[in-house]
Amino acid sequence: MTGIAIDKIVACAPSPAYVVDLGRLRHNLAILEQVQQRSGAKILMALKAFAMWSTFPLIRQTLQGVCASSPWEARLGREEFGREVHSFAAAFKESDVRELLAISNHLVFNSFNQLERFRPLWEQSGVSIGLRVNPEHSEGHTAIYDPCALNSRLGIPSTAFEGRSLAGVEGLHFHTLCEQLFEPLERTVAVFEQKFSRYLHGMKWLNLGGGHHITREGYDLDGLVELVNYLRKKYDVEVYLEPGEAIAIGTGVLVSEVLDVVDNGMQIAILDVSATCHMPDVLEMPYRPAITGGFEPGVKPYTYRLGGPSCLAGDVIGDWSFEQPLNVGDRLVFEDMAHYTMVKTTTFNGIQHPHLCTYEPQSGELKVVRSFGYPDFKNRLS
To answer: Which of 315, 322, 305 minimizes the C-alpha distance to 282?
Structure first.
């Protein structure tokens, strides 16, 4: 986002609030459209990363559909996106399969056990059935997000294919990446071909999964286009990509406000946003978000530890330094906070859920799309 956009958002947004810049969203979609046009790939949006459905009318002008990890995500995609719905989960209940077959275009199983158990349900459904495979080739740098880690529960290894029937299976799917550029995909495809290419001939599609940071600066778009064209030509299959972050990279911010400043060996600013409630990847990944006007500790004259209002002792976002001292009522803006934020929030401690907003740079309008109240908290429980 530009400095002008940040200033406008800070001036107009309530706090706390997630704000999505529709101009930056269009920028990302233009890159993805270029990839689709040049390669023939079909790009889906992974709802697990970004599911702000008020933006779907804009996104569906470019992308071909959504990938879902549960019946509820699939239903959201069917009702609000309205294009293709591709569904996968590590395992399904029978009721899940029945529901998903009614609203999905593709349904991907994670084991031969589930493929055969539910064959009577899917065989005459008209839904395209696939299997998720595990190339057993790790490119991930964080074990918790590496689907190819040792003893992974995700994907079928090549050894499990021996002697198994693929009757009715129309596609293969793998998802091995996380926040990565093109080169890890290129290496993964080489391993995938060694282990699984003999099963791909005669199938209808190949899904390369997500984790592709296609819209990030430095991504080799030409390499991706060449690889997709190679796969389509060699195996005569439709090729799908299902990024989530690539749609939302750089589009969103989380606006926060300083509630108090205390001293316990260092200056500590308590904010109205919480790591555990509003940005859990800060604790899980872990990672350090950027703050507009914030620097590494000690770089600028005033260093603070930033923490949330919850009772969790570890609800700490991190340490930053600033040009000026922080005061109660000051606004801080956490950058790149659209993906894996709204979809992972909790109401732990009954802490206020951030407003959901959009910003239109063409008009300068900031729109509050959704605000949350006590009934939203109460109705989660009984």
So the answer is: 315
